[in-house]
Amino acid sequence: MKLHGYFRSSASYRVRIALNLKGLSAEHLSHHLRKGEQRAADYLAINPQGFVPTVQGDGANLTQSLAIIEWLDETHPEPPLLPKEPLRRARVRAFAQVIACDTHPIQNLKILARLRELGLPEEKVTEWAAWANREGLAACEK
Ligand SMILES: N[C@@H](CCC(=O)N[C@@H](CS)C(=O)NCC(=O)O)C(=O)O
Q1: What is the predicted pLDDT for the residue at 46?
Q2: % of the chain with per-residue pLDDT over 90
Q3: What is the pLDDT of residues 6-38, one digit of tens each?
Q4: What is the dihedral of CA 47, 50, 53, 58, to 10 degrees?
Q5: Domain residue extents for the chain
Q6: Which of 37, 71, 70, 73 is nearest to 52 (CA)?
Q7: Which CATH class is domain 86-141?
Q8: How many helices (DSSP H) and strands (DSSP E) are in the chain?
Q9: Is the fold of 2-75 the same as that of 86-141?
Q10: By CB count within 10 A, which of 41, 51, 53, 125 is most buried?
Q11: Does residue 58 carry a pLDDT above 90?
């Protein structure tokens, strides 16, 4: 299995954590996000969004960290990543989605770059990212 990621990418961390919990190994292929390597033509061919992570293996080419993690859980069921009981499963998914759907995407590199392009000064860009993280993580803490 190949994991296209970057050491500072929290979405790649999610997949690395799942791989470790499953006791699975992968070849790690790094794409330097600050150098824009995620937008190289050969990488866009496997991940048209220009995001990490991407996982390749068993004939699959998979993007989106939560979809990758679900696939790992379904193809390597032990140890399970989700509780068995439906309500508890829903709560675990909701917790993951607070980060993956509502917190991380509004302050990732691409969004911050766009805010700069639109003329937002650097201190406001930083303030935006800090606010997004604070809001999401505070909800998780509660
Ligand atoms: N929803 C995607 C998000 C992936 C994502 O935003 N990855 C970030 C790194 S954590 C990225 O590749 N950013 C590059 C950019 O913004 O240009 C997932 O969970 O896999």
Answers
A1: 98
A2: 99
A3: 999 999 999 999 999 999 999 999 999 999 999
A4: 10
A5: 2-75, 86-141
A6: 37
A7: mainly alpha
A8: 6, 4
A9: no
A10: 53
A11: no
- Residue 103 Cβ inside 6 Å of ligand 1? The answer reads no
Asked if residues 110 and 120 have their Cβ atoms less than 8 Å apart, the reply is no
CA 86 to ligand 1 centroid distance, Å:
29
Ligand 1 pocket member 112 (CB < 6 A): no
CATH code for the part of the protein at 2-75? 3.40.30.10
Question: Residues 116, 134, 21, 74: is their CA dihedral positive or negative?
Answer: negative
Does the Cβ of 97 fall within 6 Å of ligand 1?
no
10 C-beta closer than 6 A to ligand 1: yes
Centre of ligand 1 from the C-alpha of residue 51, in Å: 4
Tell whether ligand 1 has an atom less than 6 A from the beta carbon of residue 52: yes
- Cα–Cα distance for residue pair 86/47, rounded to 1 Å: 32
Confidence check: pLDDT of 70 > 90: yes
Query: pLDDT for 86-109, tens place per residue?
Result: 999 999 999 999 999 999 999 999
Encoded amino acid at 89, one letter: R
